[in-house]
Amino acid sequence: MRIGAHVDSADPLGEAAARKAETVQFFLADPQGWKAPAPRGDADRLRATDVDVYIHAPYVINVATTNNRIRIPSRKLLLAHAKAAATVGAKGLIVHGGHVNKGDDLAVGFDNWRKTFAYAAEAGGLATPVLIENTAGGDNACARRFDALARLWDAVGEYDVGFCLDTCHAHAGGEDLLDIVDRVKAITGRIDLIHANGSKDEFGSGRDRHENLGSGQLDPDLVVAAIRAAGAPVVVETPGGADGQGADIAYLRDRLAG
């Protein structure tokens, strides 16, 4: 089982080495901005490395929304990041499930997701597999609670979409980690990546605040059990830089070896 971390994009392979990571995740552009990714000078090295590379799409992307000024640029930016992710040999592009505005019909959000993949197919397909990630908060979210996730997968499942399970998001979103892998796979049929994060906040808080494993309000035994059950690659998105994340990686390796 390959374990790594989300790191700064300037030197991801150096950051991976500092954490003794086998997987690495990073952004290709400002996570709060709308600019398409620029070509990377280390693309050849990233494609050739033994470290598994994952790319996280910008947080601003929301293909579910009914707001055309956000949804249409989001579709285009998602495709741009998928194309750029392929140039660095990424195994997946992680994108949040998105939401509709208060008062809007959530069913429209699911259909907008379907239209996004249809749009991508018409444009020649996605150059990198897209992994939709469950989210922590929002009453109008497409991938916070698993009843909504099931409706989302009814809309997009035909497009061979991947899934990224975030343990902090599940906990904060009100989904118990006990038997979570079975419940997710009953919906999606797969888990392609796990974001193994502790939570600073209590169950069901809706707050997306990550904590190191063994600290905060999320039992690390539940995180370990979910990883073991899923058998998927792992990325920690925890605080503390190389020291904090390196300790979390070592903790998981030790626990999963038993």
Q: Low-confidence parts, pLDDT < 50 over ≥5 residues? A: none
Oligomerization category of the chains in this entry: single chain
How would you classify the helix and strand content by structural class? Answer: alpha/beta
Beta-strand residue percentage: 5-15%
Shape: globular
Q: State the CATH superfamily name.
A: Divalent-metal-dependent TIM barrel enzymes
Q: Within the CATH hierarchy, at the fold level, what is the topology?
A: TIM Barrel
The description of the largest β-sheet is: 8 strands, parallel, barrel
N-to-C span: 13 Å
Question: How do the helices and strands follow one another from N- to C-terminus?
Answer: EHEHEHEHEHEHHEEEHEH
The overall strand count is 10
> How many independent structural domains?
1
What radius of gyration results from the CA coordinates? 17 Å
Determine the mean pLDDT: 97
CATH hierarchy class name = Alpha Beta
Question: Considering DSSP H and I runs of 4 or more, what fraction of the residues is helical?
Answer: 40-55%
Q: What CATH architecture label applies? A: Alpha-Beta Barrel
Could you characterize the architecture of this molecule?
There is one protein chain. With about 260 residues, this protein is α/β, with parallel strands linked by helices. It has a single domain, classed as TIM Barrel, CATH 3.20.20. Helices cover about 40% and strands about 15% of the residues. The protein has nine helices and ten strands. Strands 1-2-3-4-5-6-7-10 form an eight-stranded parallel barrel, surrounded by four helices. A two-stranded antiparallel sheet has the order 8-9. Strand 2, helix 2 and strand 3 form a beta-alpha-beta unit. The radius of gyration is 17 Å and the shape is globular.
